[in-house]
Amino acid sequence: MSEVDLKSRATYPEWVSHTLRYNDQDPLSHINNAVYSTFLEAGRTALMEPLLDEHGSGRIDIVLARVVIDYWRELTYPGTVDIGTCIIRLGTKSVTFGNGVFKGGTGECVATGEAVLVFFDLETRKSVEPPPAIRKVLEGMATN
């Protein structure tokens, strides 16, 4: 895991909000643990999709290689969450995202996560280095 304080709102330059749905609940009336993966995906997608659309030439995408989630507090319906995203590490062909899931409008961190994604050429079906324009943006956002 990273040295970045993923439980602090100040860590994150990028944010999205998500409304909790009734069907996100498990039998104990908590937000189901599987839904948190969707929260992390929403955060990194909001950051990466515009970059890939603009600089990926329709040929480059990212694929998930690893995800780790830590659950800190229970979360219940109804409500919202704020999902923060940062870049922890930028490798040659991969990027590691950090995420924090916060109870909507508060500083209360309910979960943190890290995800490693690999840049992927949709035609050759192989990992590739990101286009220079994407790398430049991500380098500017990296926490290290």
Structure description:
By secondary structure, this protein is an alpha+beta fold. 23% of the residues lie in helices and 38% in strands. It contains 2 helices and 6 strands; from the N terminus they run E-H-E-E-E-E-E-H.
Produce a short descriptive summary.
By secondary structure, the chain is an alpha+beta fold.
Give the SSE layout.
Blueprint: E1 14-19, H1 33-55, E2 60-71, E3 80-90, E4 94-103, E5 109-121, E6 126-127, H2 132-141
Antiparallel strand pairs: 1-3, 2-5, 3-4, 4-5, 5-6
Keywords:
144 residues; alpha+beta; six-stranded antiparallel β-sheet; 2 helices; globular
What is the molecular shape?
A: globular
Radius of gyration equals: 16 Å
Number of helical elements? 2
Poorly predicted spans: none
Label the structural class: alpha+beta
The beta-strand count equals 6
Order of helices and strands: EHEEEEEH
User: How much of the polypeptide forms β-strand, as a percent range?
Assistant: 35-45%
**Most strands sheet:** 6 strands, antiparallel
Mean pLDDT: 94
The percentage helix is 10-25%
Distance between the termini: 14 Å
